[in-house]
Amino acid sequence: MILRRDVFQAIADPTRRAILILVASQSMTAGAIAANFDTARPTVSKHLQILTECELLLQQQNGREVYYEINAKKMKEVADFIEPFRNMWDDRFNKLEAIMKNYKPEK
Amino acid sequence: MERKTKVEAENGKQEIIITRAFELPVELLFKAYSEPEIVEQWMGTKVLKLESRKHGSYQFETSDPNGNVMFRANGAIHEFIPDQKITRTFEMENTPFAVQLEFLEFEKLTENTSRLVMQIVYKSVELRDQMLKMPFAQGLNMAHNRLQEVGDQLK
To answer: Residue A107: inside a domain, yes or no?
Structure first.
């Protein structure tokens, strides 16, 4: 089975959401991010790994340090998750409109 | 192209409001919701029953090309005021999703245009969010399946 990282699964976790909010203001190293949480360092690393795997975070090598920064493009995709729902209804309503424009009452 | 359908889903609320303006007289718009044969055409589902009246009920069913039932939904109509209003419940059968309450308001704008405001109320905020994400998730799955198909062909 293919292990698939779901962005919604990723942002469902409160710690991961907090990390995204933190990193949104400035790119940070894993250590600096972990310093903001009471959770154990390996736990924070795991969260960073998940966020990186689903491309919500990008890694930036800066000398010996790895900085995490927000992937604005991917975040926008998540923010637009309502769009497919809207499209579904828009398609339905377009169909309704087309059908009723050609509607001829019987008798 | 102009976006005719608007979806409002305020954070932390258990409702969705869908608004759409139609280039149709309100009578024709309402007919599209009250006549079984027309509902079948635009919803792309079979209408097993549709009693368009107060205390009436309805049942929809969709099958795949092999005749297997993929989707069945039913509900009760609480209010039915021609060219103005339908209040009804909607429940997908054989799914873990709780019944939802739908308020449909039909409004005449001009002789030839009208507007529909559909307010859907869910049992919980979580369920609302889940329903909202469903087409997104299906899109992801479809993309994933297509990828899988392409991969299978390469084998």
So the answer is: no
Q: How many domains does chain A have?
A: 1
Q: Is residue A13 over pLDDT 60?
A: yes
Contact A103 B136 (CB under 8 A): no
Whether A87 is covered by a domain: the verdict is yes
Considering only CB atoms, A100 lies closest to which of B28, B139, B140, namely B28
Query: Is A85 in contact with B140 (Cβ distance < 8 A)?
Result: no
Write the CB contacts of B87 (distance below 8 Å, at least 6 apart in sequence).
B77, B78, B79, B80, B101, B102, B103, B104
Q: Which two tokens stand for residue A50?
A: 């998940």
Q: What is the interface pTM, i.e. ipTM, of the complex?
A: 0.84
DSSP structure class, residue B123:
S
pTM of the model: 0.67
Of A4, A81, A93, the CB nearest to B133: A81
- Which superfamily does CATH assign the domain made up of B5-125 to? START domain (3.30.530.20)
